[in-house]
Design brief:
Elements: H1 10-42, H2 53-73, H3 78-89
C-alpha cells in the first residue's frame, strides 16, 4: 500500500507529467495510423494513369495529416489505452514540504 501526501508543489509536476504522457500517447497513435494507412495504400490495385512521384508525395502528406487528425480525436483509442496502462504505473510525484516563514523575524 502506497500513501503519498498531496501538496501544492506536487500537483503542477504531476499535471505536467500527465500532459507529457498524453502527448506521447497521441504521437504513438499517429505513427501507428500512418503505418496502417501506408500499408493500405501499398495494397492498391496498381498505378493509375495520373500517378507520379509528385502525386505520391502529396498523397503521403495527406495521409500523414489524416493520421494526425485521427490520433488527435482518439479515433482508435490506442492513446487512451496507453494512458490507462501507464498512468497506473507512473509513480506519484513526491510531496515537497516548504518551511513556514517565521512571523517574528
Amino acid at each position: 500500500m502506497q500513501i503519498s501526501g498531496v501538496s501544492a508543489g506536487a500537483q503542477p509536476a504531476a499535471s505536467a507529467q500527465k500532459a507529457q504522457l498524453e502527448k506521447a500517447a497521441k504521437q504513438f497513435e499517429a505513427i501507428f495510423l500512418r503505418q496502417m494507412i501506408g500499408t493500405m495504400r501499398q495494397s492498391g490495385l496498381g498505378e493509375g494513369m495520373l500517378d507520379s512521384s509528385a502525386s505520391d508525395q502529396f498523397r503521403d502528406m495527406a495521409d500523414a495529416r489524416t493520421a494526425d487528425s485521427m490520433a488527435e480525436k482518439g479515433s482508435l483509442g490506442i492513446a487512451e489505452m496507453l494512458l490507462r496502462q501507464y498512468t497506473s504505473r507512473t509513480p506519484a510525484a513526491p510531496a515537497t514540504s516548504t518551511p513556514a516563514p517565521d512571523k517574528g523575524e
